[in-house]
Write a structure and sequence with these properties.
298 residues, alpha+beta, Tetrahydropterin Synthase, Chain A, 8 helices, 54% helix
């Protein structure tokens, strides 16, 4: 009984010492074993590791590729043109000892700040010697490679490797952007005014041509109508003349009947005339012939 009383605490102490001596490195991490702030062991492969309990500690760092978005900076290009530029970089820890010495206890957060400073120096260094047309053309990939190479050289002292750099924004400054928009708006408005003026001119030409065509066609139609009307009148006169020549008495009778029909048309027609008027010659004649004209005194 007394032996069990001593064995159980001893086993508990051994277990605690064992657990304090073991650490596990995940496949996504790297580890450094520190003793009083000094590096005594590197653990870059996943698995179990050993350390002195209560004296040594383990600090873990990312073994994966990390990303960094820089703050926007204003860069002066050749020709005094200015652009607001930011970039995105991918980097990875490759030298744990150098990384620990450069960043101290700040770790990845401190490294992000230092890398951001490096990129904000490399971007103006490269873009300051080029033109806006090149920055906005296909040569942009070559420029980003130059920025990457400069950042890679500077970042070696931090124990990291810059894998890639990409420019994510290349805009004009706000004041220049407003001026550019105003100039573009003025150009579009001028082009619109030119198009409206050309459209109005074309419409005027079409309208004038249409008016001229209307006048010409109306004149042609009137001339044709006058010709047809003249020919019809001539034909009518010819027919009347032939009819009069064949039987003047019958012709006069038909003309009188036509005059009666026109004059007496309607239900309330009223005529005030003398009974012996020539208009009633055929109505007063029993034979249907016009009364002979009275002889005039010699």
């Amino acid at each position: 009984m007394m032996r069990a009383f001593y064995i159980l605490p001893a086993l508990f102490v051994v277990l605690v010492l064992f657990l304090s001596s073991v650490f596990i490195v995940d496949e996504r991490k790297k580890g450094l074993v520190l003793q009083f702030g000094e590096i005594v062991q590197e653990k870059e492969t996943p698995g179990l590791g050993w350390k002195i309990p209560f004296i040594q500690e383990v600090v873990y760092y990312e073994d994966r590729i990390l990303g960094l978005q820089t703050a926007p900076i204003e860069v002066t290009l050749l020709g005094e043109r200015r652009l607001v530029v930011d970039a995105f970089a991918r980097w990875r820890i490759t030298d744990l000892k150098a990384f620990r010495q450069a960043t101290g206890s700040g770790g990845e957060e401190r490294a992000q700040t230092l890398l951001g400073n490096i990129l904000q120096q490399a971007i103006p260094e490269v873009l300051g010697n080029t033109t806006q047309d090149r920055v906005l053309s296909q040569d942009r990939a070559g420029l980003t490679n130059q920025i990457r190479d400069i950042a890679r050289r500077e970042a070696e002292a931090l124990g990291v490797t810059v894998i890639d750099v990409r420019l994510t924004r290349t805009d004009l400054p706000e004041q220049n952007l407003n001026a550019t928009y105003a100039r573009m708006r003025a150009e579009r408005e001028r082009e619109a005014a030119d198009e409206v003026a050309r459209g109005g001119e074309a419409a005027q030409r079409v309208r004038a041509a249409a008016d001229r065509t209307v006048v010409e066609e109306t004149s042609k139609a009137r001339r044709t109508a006058e010709v047809v009307r003249g020919e019809a009148d001539a034909e009518r006169n010819r027919v009347l003349a032939e009819a009069f020549g064949q039987d003047p008495e019958f012709f006069a009778f038909m003309r009188s009947l036509d005059a009666y029909r026109r004059s007496l048309n309607g239900s309330n027609s009223t005529m005030v005339m003398q009974p012996d008027s020539e208009f009633f010659d055929y109505l007063n004649s029993e034979s249907g012939r016009a009364a002979p004209a009275p002889a005039t005194a010699p």
